[in-house]
Amino acid sequence: MSHALHGIWEMVRAESGGEPSSDLLALRVELRLTAETYQVHFAGELADQGTFSRGPDTPHASLILLGGHGPNAGRTIPCIYQLVGDRLRVCYGLDGTTPTAFASPAGSTHYLATYRRKK
């Protein structure tokens, strides 16, 4: 796993099913990544955690999240990601299918999030 993903990422933008999430500032969503684990925190409180592994990188780099505790416990969530400097975009396939683009069109179960590395 690339060490470039390790760290704390603050969500700055998100959309689901074509609709933007407007309450991100209030939720203060953070994604924390280590070599093999992820944690999602809302306003400093742990909300979801599990492990992840690299997925196939065609045509985008991908990860496969395995929920351990929280609302995604027992779920497998494939996702694609793009890391540019201190910006990380992740498109999650909440229906269990790997997204093919960084988009969350109306009616889809894709969740598109943009994070900024927290200093």
Task: Please describe the structure with a list of short key phrases separated by commas or semicolons.
single chain, 119 residues, mainly beta, Lipocalin, eight-stranded antiparallel β-barrel, 9 strands, 55% strand
Provide a descriptive summary of the structure in words:
The chain has 119 residues and is mainly beta. It has a single domain, classed as Lipocalin. Helices cover 3% and strands 55% of the residues. It has one helix at residues 24-27; strands at residues 7-16, 19-20, 29-33, 37-42, 45-54, 61-69, 76-84, 87-93, 110-117. Strands 1-3-4-5-6-7-8-9 form an 8-stranded antiparallel β-barrel. Strand 3 and strand 4 (37-42) form a beta hairpin. The chain is globular and about 30 Å long. The model has no long low-confidence stretch (mean pLDDT 92).
The CATH class is: Mainly Beta
Number of helices: 1
The topology string of helices and strands comes to EEHEEEEEEE
Report the β-strand fraction as a percent range: over 45%
Number of domains: 1
CA radius of gyration: 13 Å
Q: Percent of residues in helical segments? A: under 10%
CATH superfamily: Uncharacterised protein PF14869 family, DUF4488
Q: Report low-confidence residues grouped into runs of 5 or more.
A: none
Q: How many β strands by DSSP?
A: 9
Strand order of the largest sheet: 1-3-4-5-6-7-8-9
Quote the distance from N terminus to C terminus: 21 Å
Can I get a quick summary?
The protein is mainly beta and 119 residues long. It has one helix at residues 24-27; strands at residues 7-16, 19-20, 29-33, 37-42, 45-54, 61-69, 76-84, 87-93, 110-117. The protein has a single domain (3-117), classed as Lipocalin.
